[in-house]
Amino acid sequence: MQLANNQSRYGWVAICLHWSIALLTICLFILGIWMVELDYYDSWYQQAPWWHKGLGVITLWLIIGRWLWQLFSSKPKAIESISAWQNKASWLVHRLMNFLIITIAVSGYLMVTAKGKSLSVFDWYSIPAIVSSVANLEDIAGEFHFLLAYGLIGLVLLHSTAALLHHYVYKDETLKRMLGR
Fold first, then answer.
1. Are 27 and 72 in contact (CB under 8 A)?
2. Which stretches of the chain are DSSP H helices?
3. Which residues pair with 120 in a beta bridge?
4. Domain residues of the chain, as ranges?
5. Residue 181 in contact with residue 58, Cβ under 8 Å?
6. What is residue 47's predicted lDDT score, i.e. its pLDDT?
7. Distance, CA of 173 to CA of 171 (rounded, Å)
C-alpha cells in the first residue's frame, strides 16, 4: 500500500491519522464519562485527568497534522455510485466533527487554565493559561465541554453507521478505502 493518497485509495498516512483520531476520540469520551464519577479517594482521581488532558492535546495535534496532510496530498475521487447529497452530507459531518474536536479541546483547555494554572501535557511541556479573569469560566467551559462531547459522539455514530451502510448495504468502496484495501 502506498504512503500517500491516490485517485482511488487513501494512503497509509491518511488512514493512520483517521483511525488514530477516531480511536482517541472514543477513548477520550469514555475516559471523560468515567473520570467525572471518581471520588477524591479513588487512586485514579489524579491519574485519569492527567491521561485525558494529554490524550486530548495529542488528538488536537493529530487533527492539525491531518489538515496539513490534506493540504499536500490529493484526495481520492468520489465514488460514482454515491449521490451528490450524500457526498455533501459526508463533507459536512467531517467538518462538524473536526470543528467539535477543536472546540472541545479549547473548552477543555479553558477548564484547566481558568484559575491561571497551565495545562501540563504528559509532563512533557505545559501550555500557559491565557484567559483566567472570567468569572465562572471553569463551569461555563465545562458545560460546553460536556455538551459538545455528546454532540461529537452523536456525529461519530452517524458517521460510523453511514460507513457500515455503504459497506454492507450499498456494497461500495467507501469503507474499504479507509481500511487500506
1. no
2. 12-35, 47-72, 84-113, 137-168, 174-179
3. 126
4. 12-179
5. no
6. 95
7. 7
Q: What is the mean pLDDT of the chain?
A: 94
For residue 132, the model assigns a pLDDT of 78
CA 127, distance to chain mean position in Å, is: 19
CA distances from 43 to 23, 39, 112 (A): 25, 9, 20
| Displacement of CA 18 from its chain's centroid (Å) | 9
Contacts of residue 76, Cβ cutoff 8 Å, sequence gap at least 6: 5, 6, 7, 8, 9, 10, 177
Sequence-distant (6+) residues with CB within 8 A of 176 are: 167
Amino acid at 89: A
CB 108 within 8 A of CB 32: no
List all residues 6 or more positions away from 53 whose beta carbon is below 8 Å from its beta carbon: 108, 112, 119, 120, 121
Task: Confirm if 55 and 101 have CB atoms less than 8 A apart.
Answer: no
List the one residue out of 114, 106, 109 whose CA is nearest residue 131.
114
Amino acid at 151: G
Q: What is the mean pLDDT of residues 156-174?
A: 94
